[in-house]
Amino acid sequence: MALDKIGIAKRIAQELRDGWYVNLGIGIPTLVANYIPSGIDVEFQSENGLLGMGPFPIEGEEDADLINAGKQTVTVLDGGSLFDSANSFAMIRGQHVQLTVLGAMEVAENGDIANWKIPGKMVKGMGGAMDLVASAENIIVAMMHTNKHGDSKLLKKCSLPLTGVGCVKKIVSNLAVLEVTENGFKLLERAPGVSVEEIKNATEGKLIIEGDIPEMVIN
Q1: Name one Pfam family in it (predicted).
Q2: CATH number, domain at 178?
Q3: Which of 25, 66, 76, 157 is 20 to 30 Å from 184 by CA-CA measure?
Q4: Over the stretch 121-147, which tens digit does the pLDDT of each residue have?
């Protein structure tokens, strides 16, 4: 069966490494903070000026002054710090963040990402996404493999306005884990109960399949 949003977040959490600074984008990526593997210490950074972000607060214990970039209430771990957005973006542009996790509307087989605008719909702006995709060396996308109509979101070429070019390294969708290579999407893992054929049918872009594809292990 395909993963839900929590399953995607849990699988991405397995990519975290001890000592990393990690930026979590809006949407599914914010859930990753709730599923840090035991035995590792990571620092979550939010571009509105927060380092040391913890999991979402328990209902009734929210602090309206503590929010992430998506304006959701969050917690701050012991030793966490607050600072202005200028310092936050200096940290991002200076490549002091080891991993960025973003949502996406579309990803192209060459690593292009579109995640900020649908033409004709009002948006406030790109926000920090442009800086993140331009500066991060390791970008993982958390997304649904298809849209609500069943059309693929992993494409030969993005149709929506781009956020970044050739920057995505890995995708964790509700169907699969894929690496973006110079030759296309390389299938690494499939969601429990999902067949390789289902993933092929849901992927418009070039899909590379080598050998037996193992199922994801979600703890």
Answers
A1: CoA_trans
A2: 3.40.1080.10
A3: 25
A4: 666 666 677 788 888 889 999 999 999
pTM of the model: 0.92
Instruction: Let me know if residue 89 belongs to a domain.
Output: no
pLDDT value at residue 69: 83
Number of domains the chain is built from: 1
If you average pLDDT over every residue of the chain, what do you get? 92
Contact 183, 206 (CB under 8 A): yes
Active site residue 109: no
Catalytic residue among 47, 106, 109, 204: 47
Q: Which domain holds residue 191?
A: 5-31+97-208
Q: What is the 3-state secondary structure (H, E, C) of the chain?
A: CCCCHHHHHHHHHCCCCCCCEEEECCCHHHHHHHHCCCCCCCEEEECCCEEEECCCCCCCCCCCCCECCCCCECCEEEEEEECCHHHHHHHHHCCCCCEEEEECCEEECCCCEECCCCCCCCCCCCCCHHHHHHHCCCEEEEECCECCCCCECEECCCCCCCCECCCCCEEEECCEEEEEECCEEEEEEECCCCCHHHHHHCCCCCEECCCCCCECCCC
- pLDDT number for residue 43: 94
126 within a domain of the structure (yes/no)? yes
